[in-house]
Amino acid sequence: MIDDDLVDALAQLSFLVQNALAEIAGRHDLSLIQTRMLGILRDHEPTMQDLGRHLGLDKSSISGLVDRAQRRGLVTRVPTAADRRVTLVSITDEGRRLAAQGAAEFAEHIAALTATLPPDDRRTLTALANRVITASRIP
After folding, report:
1. How far is residue 88's CA from residue 41's CA, in Å, rounded to a whole number?
2. Are the C-beta atoms of residues 88 and 80 closer than 8 Å to each other?
3. Which CATH number do you get for residue 48?
4. CA–CA separation, 87 and 39 (whole Å)
5. Which domain holds residue 109?
6. Is 64 exposed, middle or buried (0-12, 13-18, 19+ CB in 10 A)?
7. HTH marR-type domain: which residues (predicted)?
8. What's the rounded Cα separation, in Å, for the pair 126 and 133?
9. Residue-by-residue pLDDT tens, the chain, 139 positions
């Protein structure tokens, strides 16, 4: 059975979150996809192929995205020692600074959005969101 209220609430929440991310990205002259890429690269050094898979982009799109970020000094490409045909994408200090600044702004925005919720409700929302995310990873 489809719960239309749940579908609508999650869609509206998604719009709020995506709009916040897009606004913050725009303030730093970044696209939403560039912002997502920097978020991934803060904690990982994926191959080009893995980064494309994380972002849902094909080979030519990920190459263009990384090219633009590299020209801006946000990322570098590093060939792997084991296979020089495989390239890792690494965040630069400038990319890390920009990612941290954007993350801090996003955290402030989310804190403002949820400020009217009592602490127990915020914990419940966090737990439920994590359960949905975890369940979505099951093949």
Report:
1. 10
2. yes
3. 1.10.10.10
4. 19
5. 4-136
6. exposed
7. 3-134
8. 11
9. 788 999 999 999 999 999 999 999 999 999 999 999 999 999 999 999 999 999 999 989 999 999 999 999 999 999 888 887 889 999 999 999 999 999 999 999 999 999 999 999 999 999 999 999 999 886 5
- CA 7/CA 13 separation, integer angstroms: 10
Tokens 């609508």: give the residue: 8
Domain count along the chain: 1
Name residue 37's amino acid.
M
- For the chain, give the secondary structure using H, E and C: CCCHHHHHHHHHHHHHHHHHHHHHHHHCCCCHHHHHHHHHHHHCCCEHHHHHHHHCCCHHHHHHHHHHHHHCCCEEEEECCCCCCCEEEEECHHHHHHHHHHHHHHHHHHHHHCCCCCHHHHHHHHHHHHHHHHHHCCC
Helices 93-113 and 4-27, axial angle in degrees (round to 10)? 140
